[in-house]
Amino acid sequence: MSSVNLGSWVHTSSVISQATRSRSKSKPLSFSPVSIPLFYRNSKRSVSYVSAIVTKDEETIQEEQNKNSSSSLGFDFKSYMVQKASAINQALEAAVSLREPLKIHESMRYSLLAGGKRVRPALCLAACELVGGDESMAMPAACAVEMIHTMSLIHDDLPCMDNDDLRRGKPTNHIVFGENVAVLAGDALLAFAFEHIAVSTLNVSPVRIVRGVGELAKAIGAEGLVAGQVVDICSEGLSEVDLEKLEFIHIHKTAKLLEGAVVLGAIMGGGTDEEVEKLRKYARDIGLLFQVVDDILDVTKSSQELGKTAGKDLVADKVTYPKLMGIEKSREFAEKLNKEAQEQLAGFDPEKAAPLIALANYIAYRQN
């Protein structure tokens, strides 16, 4: 069964202003009003962020918005995500079964099957279906993305990295199995991810499978996720880190894997080069959006609400969007990224694009 948490999903109805991204060290950020996206013009509610802690009134507003969030599109996002998460969880359970050596497989399964929102594999499947493919064509790729994501979490939590003891509301892998086994579990998930795509993908041409493997490898290597991690580590405690470097960190550390998930799905589904590139731009925007929101949540939510240690970026003296821009301007920047991402879906079938639109909104307005 699915363990995805969708109770906090909010579909916004009003965009007041958007942040204008600056890549220059000398130019300050500027902000300008923009028109409200078409999908939201018929809605009458808006999201209000008043304080760092969600009050009862805000919870009531969010609950009301959750009830009506999908109706304007005629798309039930919550049901969609529950169905996709259930299918993904079943596929992951089958892919990584308990076998000898038991210890390593127990460790792999402990983190892989610990729950989570399954946003990345859901994006992979949605992109596949958007370009005309079938879910089954991209399921091994979607599972591979989640295996790699889980690997990154296991390694992130290690004492030599973020030194965290809580993940998805449970003790982290190294707390339960020890650092040595945790490292090996991450390594095993990474290796098996590529094996799973190569061996288990059906009804997709070998050319597309090889192309997909190449995309995913690039997304997580020294030009992708690892690059972002290294620059992030080297930037801790530095006072001269600017928005340009922060964007580099987050595009590589977070957005690249989300980009890989979406592009992989589009490739497996038979998408044209033009479709793949549009979805790449969409994914890059929501990937950066994911991290901006993550930075905001780290300083506005409790550990219990997040299911992981809150405030750790502040303790580690990491540079974040709220630290450089402030909370409100970070939220405006998140609105801008969400709008730009959805603009990339304009040329696709609206019915097939609905899951990706809803996923972008979920990423933008999630509460954990």
Provide structural commentary.
It is a single chain. By secondary structure, the protein is mainly α. It has a single domain, classed as Farnesyl Diphosphate Synthase. It contains 16 helices and 4 strands. Strand 3 and strand 4 form a beta hairpin. The longest helix is centred in the C-terminal third of the chain and has 28 residues, at 273-300. Residues 1-72 have low confidence and may be disordered.
Index terms:
368 residues, disordered N terminus, Farnesyl Diphosphate Synthase, two-stranded antiparallel sheet, magnesium, mainly alpha, 3% strand, single chain, carotenoid biosynthesis
Give the helices and strands, then pairings.
Blueprint: E1 18-20, E2 30-32, H1 56-68, H2 77-95, H3 102-112, H4 119-130, H5 135-156, E3 166-167, E4 170-171, H6 173-177, H7 179-200, H8 206-220, H9 225-235, H10 243-268, H11 273-300, H12 303-306, H13 312-315, H14 321-325, H15 327-343, H16 350-365
Antiparallel strand pairs: 1-2, 3-4
Pfam families: polyprenyl_synt (PF00348)
InterPro entries: Isoprenoid_synthase_dom_sf (IPR008949), Polyprenyl_synt (IPR000092), Polyprenyl_synt_CS (IPR033749), Prenyl_diphosphate_synthase (IPR053378)
GO molecular function, one term: geranylgeranyl diphosphate synthase activity
